[in-house]
Amino acid sequence: MSILGIILTINSAHPLLTTDYLISEDKPLTEERAYWLAWAQISGIGPTALQRLKQKFGTLARAWTATAAELGQIAGFGRQKIEKIIAERSQLNPEQLLEKHTAKNPEFWTPADPNYPRLLQEIPTPPPLLYYRGIVDPQETLGITPTVAIVGTRHPSEYGRRWTRKISSILAKSGFTIVSGLATGIDTEAHTACLEVGGRTIAVFGNGVDMVYPRENKGLAEWVVKQGLAVSEYPAGTRPNGRHFPQRNRIIAGLSRAILIMEAPERSGALITADMANEFCRDVYVLPARLDDEKSYGCLQLINKGAEVIPITMDKLLEMLGAMPPLDVGLDLNIIESSEQLSLELEEKTETAMPDLEPILEQVFQCISTEAIYLDLIVQKTGLSSSEVSSSLLQLELLGLVTQLPGMRYQRS
What we know:
Elements: H1 3-13, H2 29-40, H3 47-57, H4 60-64, H5 68-71, H6 79-89, H7 94-104, E1 108-109, H8 118-121, E2 130-134, H9 138-141, E3 147-151, H10 158-173, E4 177-180, H11 186-196, E5 201-204, H12 218-227, E6 229-232, H13 244-254, E7 258-261, H14 269-279, E8 283-286, H15 297-304, E9 308-309, H16 314-322, H17 339-353, H18 359-366, E10 373-374, H19 375-382, H20 386-398, E11 402-405, E12 409-412
Parallel strand pairs: 3-4, 3-7, 4-5, 5-6, 7-8, 8-9
Antiparallel strand pairs: 1-2, 2-6, 10-12, 11-12
Helix pairs in contact: 2-7, 10-11, 11-12, 13-14, 18-20
């Protein structure tokens, strides 16, 4: 069964999960994604405007046929902008545009697609088009696998390089996906150290995914594509541009549950990433350094603003990152007044939403308790193949019955 099929099946039996961002109300998925593409071609329509259109009309397909009067009810849509929209959309056929665009860019997502990263859905300005190359991991796109960004200066000290490599490799070994921007310096060290230990990494480009910048990272980029994923909001053939990189940084922050700033001077793109992370309610951690180290002035500023200091021991760092709250799946924790009340509500929801499990799912589920258990031990206990167990665990996670912890460990939710 496809991942979309799994999600739709689970949604019908599990009210805590929602797919209203995957499928439009009255249009097939492929048609709705055509309208995301078409709207993205209209000059003056950026991510913020697209979110307002979606909120107002429910789907971008419906927004495409909106009258001038209806468009005028949206904040920021003045007379000149509306006239431009009406003129430009009359020259576009969304379905034909999608077919032509896909010929040059076969691999891209819109927010209407099931594999569009769920964490990006949470930010105010998700890219309407996200191009990719490499190996897609549904557990990453669904926000199940923990993702951590590691960023910093292009000219790090030996101290910064050493700690970046150490932290990246430890997190990768512990089941985290490392996100960075493929720039020289800290980004390069983070990607490389992750890949060297067999980990997953996501590189966010400020140009098309068919191009590499900087050139000296061409080999690293190919390594990323073979073992991880490269993403960009810019189509094939887009060359590097200084204006693209601040926008690229919001995607790095949006894709990550936490951001680690290793070294950053006062004027650093890493500080932009940190600011966006704060805006998106992500955790920000900073590598401590000497007070007279210019390469870390930006880090010191972040600490003064309340950023967490990366702890001395890696066990403590893993504990802090492992304690990040799971993605919200519909339970309003604000109404919970006590741990006893929370337990009662969870028991009630489990009793009403617990689906009948297929035999293999039931076999895997019975091997898991509230105490964490490693993947290989589940394989050993069930006698099933690794692929069967991994597939079953993914379905159990989507059902909300099992939670994955760092280090490929699982426990009952």
